[in-house]
């Protein structure tokens, strides 16, 4: 089983990005290293090991990278949750607060069939606003949330408190 330690060592802190006072956790060194990226996907797949999963849902934009790879590894469909105005068909949307502003995310109305078992995958859990909005949309469509998985969790921001009673797993916690 891959160790999270090598992933942690590769995450780069970028001070004052995207604005002063924020310490951004840069995952691009993980993405650029084939074995590390493979290990990250393996670790993100772990919550699905003993579960039936119908679809993996990823959040715009970095979450797409990880969620699509997890979906491919598990042999299931991938569903994108996008920023407002980026999906071409009938959508359901919700607005939310994030750590430095407001935003709206959307999901195609037919992306999930009621009763489908889904796993939400994203790169980062910070304040929880984006993931909570995604979970709200999925629940409205009748999805059964099997797992919520993040590469990184900024635990000092208490984002998981907004995600309800869903099983939540983070590979790295800061």
Automatic annotation (TrEMBL):
Single GO cellular component term: cytoplasm
Subcellular compartments: Cytoplasm
Signal sequence range: none
KW Transport (keyword) present: no
UniProt-listed Enzyme Commission number(s): 2.4.2.7
Principal location: cytoplasm
Reaction(s) the record says it catalyses: AMP + diphosphate = 5-phospho-alpha-D-ribose 1-diphosphate + adenine
InterPro entries per the UniProt record, alphabetical: Ade_phspho_trans, PRTase-like, PRTase_dom, UPRTase/APRTase
Record domain Phosphoribosyltransferase: where: 49-149
Pfam families: Pribosyltran (PF00156)
Domain of life: Bacteria
Metabolic or biological pathway, per its Swiss-Prot or TrEMBL entry: Purine metabolism; AMP biosynthesis via salvage pathway; AMP from adenine: step 1/1
UniProt entry keywords in alphabetical sequence: Cytoplasm, Glycosyltransferase, Purine salvage, Transferase
Sample GO molecular function, one term: adenine binding
Subunit structure, interactors included: Homodimer.
Cited function: Catalyzes a salvage reaction resulting in the formation of AMP, that is energically less costly than de novo synthesis.
Record-stated family: Belongs to the purine/pyrimidine phosphoribosyltransferase family.
Protein name: Adenine phosphoribosyltransferase
Species this protein is from: Luteolibacter ambystomatis
């Amino acid at each position: 089983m891959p160790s999270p330690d090598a992933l942690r060592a590769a995450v780069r802190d970028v001070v004052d990005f995207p604005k002063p006072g924020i310490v951004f956790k840069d995952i691009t060194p993980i993405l650029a290293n084939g074995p590390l990226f493979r290990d990250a996907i393996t670790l993100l797949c772990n919550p699905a090991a003993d579960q039936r999963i119908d679809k993996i849902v990823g959040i715009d934009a970095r979450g797409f990278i990880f969620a699509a790879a997890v979906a491919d590894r598990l042999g299931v469909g991938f569903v994108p949750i996008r920023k407002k105005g980026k999906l071409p068909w009938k959508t359901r949307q919700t607005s939310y607060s994030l750590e430095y502003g407001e935003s709206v995310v959307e999901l195609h109305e037919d992306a999930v069939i009621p009763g489908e078992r889904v796993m939400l995958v994203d790169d980062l859990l910070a304040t929880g606003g984006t993931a909570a909005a995604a979970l709200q949309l999925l629940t409205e469509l009748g999805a059964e949330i099997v797992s919520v998985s993040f590469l990184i969790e900024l635990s000092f921001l208490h984002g998981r408190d907004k995600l309800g009673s869903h099983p939540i797993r983070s590979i790295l916690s800061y």
